[in-house]
Amino acid sequence: MRVDRSVMATRSKSIGTGRHCKKCGTEITKRPGGKTACPKCSRDREARYRRDDPARRVGYRKKYAVEVRDAVLKAYGESCACCGEHRREFLTIDHADGKGHEHRKEIGRGGLVFYNWLRRNKYPAGFRTLCMNCNFSRGLHGYCPHEREARHEGKGQGQGEGIGQRAD
Q1: Who has the most CB within 10 Å: 53, 54, 152, 154?
Q2: Can you give the pLDDT at residue 105?
Q3: What is the distance between the alpha carbons of residues 98 and 86, in angstroms, rounded to a whole number?
Q4: Contact at 8 Å (CB) between 70 and 55?
Q5: Helix H or strand E segment including 117
Q6: CA–CA separation, 35 and 19 (whole Å)
Q7: pTM, rounded to two decimals
Q8: Cα 67 from chain centroid (whole Å)
Q9: Rounded CA gap, 124 and 103, in Å?
Q10: Domain boundaries in the chain?
Q11: Are 115 and 68 in contact (CB under 8 A)?
Q12: Does the pLDDT value for residue 10 go beyond 50?
């Protein structure tokens, strides 16, 4: 049996829920699950909330961002994989393959958007926890000074390197 989609669309919009908006009295015809206001009154309420109490919204957003970041750090490790830094304020997630710029372009942004992407994708491999210093150095120079120090300690060297001198 073939169903005409235009009739289905009209029919689903015209079927009422038997519920009415508490503010204006119009019938609520969409998503009856617990709604007590029509879409227009809901939008007006949200606009008032954004306008009248922005600090409260910012507080909720910050709390959510901290929760997401904590979950990601627990999944990838709670200390820097390079230097062992453990203070959460300094930790971040690094693309181990060095292609963070390309990945951020693909998903849209970094920060909370990136952390949510990691959660949605069940914390995929190819990422690690680094402190901001190690992550920045890898991005800017292609290496972290801690790695060079560890290599030189193993060879019996350690001092005498300066800016512009190659360690290898």
Answers
A1: 152
A2: 83
A3: 22
A4: no
A5: helix 112-120
A6: 9
A7: 0.59
A8: 10
A9: 13
A10: 54-148
A11: yes
A12: no
Q: Of 113, 105, 133, whose CA–CA distance to 72 is shortest?
A: 113
Cβ(104)–Cβ(118) under 8 Å? no
Going from the C-alpha of 28 to that of each of 19, 32, 42, 44, 162, the distances in angstroms are 6, 7, 11, 15, 71
Give the Cα separation of 45 and 50 in Å (integer).
9
Q: Residue 45, CB half-sphere, CA atoms under 13 Å: how many?
A: 11
**Each residue's pLDDT tens digit, 29-52:** 765 566 677 888 888 888 887 788
What's the pLDDT at 121?
Answer: 93
Distance CA 129, CA 75 (A): 9
> Long-range CB contacts (< 8 A, 24+ apart) of 86-92?
90/131, 90/132, 90/133, 91/129, 91/130, 91/131, 91/132, 92/129, 92/130, 92/131, 92/132, 92/135
Cα 153 to Cα 24: distance, rounded to the nearest angstrom: 75
Q: At 94, which helix (H) or strand (E)?
A: strand 91-95
Of the pLDDT bands very low, low, confident and very high (cuts 50, 70, 90), residue 124 is: very high
Q: Which residues contact 93 (CB under 8 A, 6 or more apart)?
A: 72, 73, 76, 114, 115, 118, 127, 128, 129, 130
Give the CA distances from residue 90 to residues 73, 84, 133, 142, in Å, rounded to whole numbers and listed in that order.
11, 11, 8, 20
Distance CA 30, CA 13 (A): 7
